[in-house]
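Quarterly update from the structural biology core.
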Amino acid sequence: MVGGIDIGSRTVKMVVMEDGEVRDFQVRDSGYDPCAQALELIKVYKLKSLVATGYGRHALELDLSHKVITEIKAHAIGARHLYPNCRTVIDVGGQDSKVISLSENGKIIDFKMNDRCAAGTGRFLEIMAHALGFAIEEFGKEALSAKESVKINSMCTVFAESEVISLISRRVPLLSIALGVHEAIADRISSLAHKIEVFPGVVFTGGVAKNPCVCELLEKRLGQEILIPPHPEIVGALGAAIEASKLFNPKTSVAGPPG
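Predicted structure, tokenized:
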């Protein structure tokens, strides 16, 4: 049994594989100590090989002997495994966003990443949803029902929140503001994508891929169909688990995760 763990800023994700198949996966909040959360997940299983990824991947080094891979590589491996024709990966998590171009045989050609501010990330969505009084789980669905949008001029989270509060005080419809927030995020992500070549076969990973409004707006801006995995938030952990499988037994063929 081998495992891949993705220690993110908002959540910790773990995928466990055995004989080339996914046996289990877990997702939990990172909390104030993501390393402790990761260790709690790991100790449940008797793992023969472990690969860590995510921003906290090096945090386990004091507690465990394990291999680490970058988020870029992990998401590329995971997305390509789920969709063999994948040539572009868009990953939007809690605190960063990235776009990855792959060759026909799945090698990483280029990537662009925004990790300097929360703009265009899940955290930005959470803050805006809270300001508007929406549950984050329903934010995208509600935004899609808006008849029109209002432009959000600032992508700095602090200034954007102030702008949203100002629009609310002027009695601008909440749904219009919500759609404007989503358009601002889609603009930011598509701008990142246009800095590299976007090939057909676009796979959207990370928790924000669960937001239907962001997905629809990105499809329009990129002019590409976007594929959403059944569990987009665990794709990085899946990629890490596949890497762990290869390390433990290079001849093992790997099957996909349960639906």
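The chain has two domains: 1-83+233-259, 86-228.
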